[in-house]
Amino acid sequence: MSGRRKPDGQTTQPGQGGLMPTLVLALGTFAVGTDAFVVAGFLPSMAEDLYVSTEAAGQSVTVFAAAYALLSPVLATATARLPRRALLVGALITLGLANLCSALAPNLAVLIISRVLAAAGAAAYTPSAGAVSAALVRPEYRARALAVVIGGLTVATALGVPLGNLAGHWLGWRSALGIVAALCALIALGVRLMMPALPGNPRVPLRTRLAVLRRPAVLAVLPLTVFGMAAAYTAYAYSVPVLRAVRVPDSADLWMLFLYGLGAVLGNLASGYATDRWGSVRVLTFGYIGMVLALGLLTWLAATHVSLVLLVGVLVLLWGAASWCQTPAQQHRLIEAAPQEAPLVVSLNSSGIYLGIGLGTVLGGITLPHGATTVYGLGAALAAAALLFLRLTARAAARKG
Fold first, then answer.
1. Contact 260, 317 (CB under 8 A)
2. Residue 167, SS3?
3. 298-301 contacts: CB < 8 A, separation 24 or more?
4. Please, which of 133, 175, 329, 336 could form a disulfide with 171 given CB 3.0 to 4.6 Å?
């Protein structure tokens, strides 16, 4: 890419900037994350209003995630030549309109359709924002720039989901989604006013784009994103009902969701710094150990019916940190594996994130009727499988090196 001209006439050279240009992109991922995760805060009331089970309503999360995973590489190809700012703004407007449709949905079928439209907006925005952030900053800031942009998603879990839960209690879930729609429109305006005009990229056929999947280094990284997010989301998609099983009262739902989100923010930011300093494999190893510990102890609490709300809060904080420390480290690994296809591999990683979310939601929905002990236990088992996969693939890569 050539130098980018800012509105004030200054030029932003790719790979030469600091972290400031990434902050406006993080506002957009905050909107995307609020849309993607806010449903977890009011899933039971949504199910009741639409006359379906909690598991059925939870499949709106699955559909969003699956549509995102499938659409992300397709939209990356279709929109390649569009100027980046126009693409980012258009994606946020699409997301806002989809949330408005969700807020007005008379039944589950309309809700599902609107969630597919929302997934299209999210799939167009997030990978482009990540790739642009990585391109704008100096190489030594790359992991931290990715962490800032993904930080919008984690701040959404810290603030968006609890506030959505609060709005759902006070105003109803429809009003909460209406607020998300307004937020998307407001941030789209902010991105339009504050982001420099950036050119599009050369059009690369989808077949050529997906050829990167034949690279052993990429294939060794991407499945871990799916396993890790599935582990995190098996219980989180149904966080309100499974928290009941560990004796969390109704009045503490909001605080538990906030603690998960706070952990997500801290884990994400720490991961960006630690990955630049000590490497992604070490960061991911500690992350998966933390997730196994958190979900394993929650399994024990659910099975024994012991009431230790303070301990639950600490475990939920650790669970959030372990869940979201994955993304900067995984994106950094993929960019190192295929530096010439950075936008594509970031897009594929985003697909992996939402594929994992969808898989976790399906597994959580299947196991929820068998009790929260099973849901937490399955999440812990998936986290252990992710840790094993990481160590095996990292060892193989080290031998090849």
1. yes
2. helix
3. 298/235, 298/246, 298/376, 299/373, 299/376, 299/377, 299/380, 301/246, 301/247
4. 175
Amino acid at 49: D
End-to-end Cα distance, the chain: 31
- The whole-model pTM stands at 0.76
Pull the structure tokens for residue 146: 């990715």
Strand 4-5 relative to strand 11-12, pairing: antiparallel
pLDDT at 209 over 80: no
Closest among 319, 3, 388, 336 to 146, alpha carbons compared: 336
d(CA 114, CA 332): 32
Q: How many residues does the chain have?
A: 401
Three-state DSSP state, 366:
helix
Locate 156 and state its tokens. 């959404």
For 306-356, what is each residue's pLDDT tens digit? Answer: 889 999 999 999 999 999 899 889 988 888 888 777 767 877 887 888 889
Q: What is the 3-state secondary structure (H, E, C) of 207-223?
A: HHHHHHHHCHHHHCCHH
Task: Tokens 């094993």: give the residue.
Answer: 388
Average pLDDT over residues 232-239: 89
Q: Are 296 and 380 in contact (CB under 8 A)?
A: yes
**DSSP secondary structure code for residue 107 in this structure:** S
Class of the domain covering 12-400: mainly alpha
Distance CA 257, CA 247 (A): 15
Residue holding tokens 């995102």? 68
Domain edges within the chain: 12-400
The residue ranking higher by pLDDT, 241 or 73, is 241
